[in-house]
Inverse folding.
């Protein structure tokens, strides 16, 4: 392969990288659309415990009356409680990343969320018997979201 072919190859690589960078530009927080995510199976939450790296973990979700909810087990609830950026969490859903979504404890909605999760997820028949001390409503924060690049 000649030098000019190699240079063209590198230009193609750079153009591809530039395209990827362009794909990660910020999207407005107005893209927080819970009703559009109702059929998603999971989302990922990001927490950071004191002195630790950030930690992403998947959870089931439901949308009730246009609001996005998650139900957390003891371990995940502990991570949320120790989160240094509380009440803010990172959220990845449907190819978007929201760096500052507000996690609002919603104990008053726990029964409705549990029922909706049971309707949506067949395997909830077993999972519901585990402890779920924290039900959260996730709300948009006035920050940007960026597409997630796999």
């Amino acid at each position: 392969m000649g030098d000019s072919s190699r240079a063209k190859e590198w230009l193609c690589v750079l153009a591809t990288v530039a395209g990827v960078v362009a794909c990660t530009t910020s999207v407005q927080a107005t893209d927080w659309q819970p009703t559009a995510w109702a059929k998603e199976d999971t989302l990922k939450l990001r927490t950071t415990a004191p002195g630790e790296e950030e930690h992403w973990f998947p959870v089931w979700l439901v949308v009730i009356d246009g609001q996005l909810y998650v139900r957390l087990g003891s371990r995940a609830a502990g991570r949320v409680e120790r989160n240094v950026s509380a009440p803010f969490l990172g959220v990845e859903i449907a190819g978007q990343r929201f760096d500052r979504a507000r996690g609002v404890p919603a104990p008053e909605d726990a029964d409705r969320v549990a029922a909706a999760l049971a309707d949506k997820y067949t395997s909830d028949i077993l999972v519901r018997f585990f402890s779920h001390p924290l039900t959260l409503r996730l709300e948009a924060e006035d920050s940007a979201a960026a597409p997630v690049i796999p």
Notes: Residues 3-23 form the longest helix (21 residues). Strands lie at 42-48, 54-60, 62-64, 67-72, 88-93, 96-105, 134-139, 145-147. Residues 110 and 135 are 6 Å apart (CA to CA). The radius of gyration is 19 Å.
